[in-house]
Design brief:
alpha+beta, Glutaredoxin, 3-stranded antiparallel sheet
């Protein structure tokens, strides 16, 4: 799949899961924020879980994705666990933590994870970037371990349309 950062084409790899799919893989990602537990596929097996992927947590767009997702979920009174996965190392989360200490979402990192775990995660969600250690912006909603909605914006410059993503999740419940 190709996405764009402004006019620059970015080739992604991996398979974006389809509605009804579950993650039939094993990975373990280190924690960065609001937890001391690693992110594993079993972490998304119960209830509504939103996984947010972030290419660069130090960027304004990624910080706003973290903030906007939690604010919008709370405003709509959606009972969901939110897990953010960033390409970066743990220390890069400091700015988010200092600017938004009230957020409840959990943060995880790829840079300090085992190489096999990183590749498995990228492949499982289709968020890998060819020729780069980064991942693309993405949003994935799982209900009791089954995917109900995925969204990888074609235009990666800016913040994903969180409202449209949450609208689709809420429609799936009616």
């Amino acid at each position: 799949m190709n996405v764009y950062l402004g006019d620059q084409k970015i080739s992604t790899y991996g398979r974006v899961p389809k509605p009804g799919d579950s993650l039939e893989v094993q990975f373990s990602l280190p924690w960065a924020w609001n937890t001391k537990s690693r992110l594993r596929p079993k972490s998304i097996q119960t209830g509504l879980v939103i996984v947010s992927t972030l290419p660069n947590i130090k960027s304004n767009e990624c910080s706003m994705q973290v903030l906007s997702l939690e604010e919008e979920v709370n405003a709509r009174k959606i009972k969901a666990k939110i897990f953010h996965v960033a390409s970066d190392k743990k220390s890069n989360w400091k700015a988010v933590v200092s600017l938004h200490p009230f957020l409840k979402a959990k943060g995880y990192i790829l840079e300090e994870a085992e190489k096999d775990d990183v590749e498995t995660f990228k492949q499982a969600l289709g968020v890998g970037v060819k020729g780069s250690k980064r991942i693309v912006h993405g949003l994935f909603a799982f209900l009791d371990g089954k995917l109900i909605k995925s969204y990888i914006p074609r235009q990666q410059y800016g913040i994903p349309n969180i409202k449209r993503f949450l609208d689709a999740i809420q429609r799936s419940f009616h």
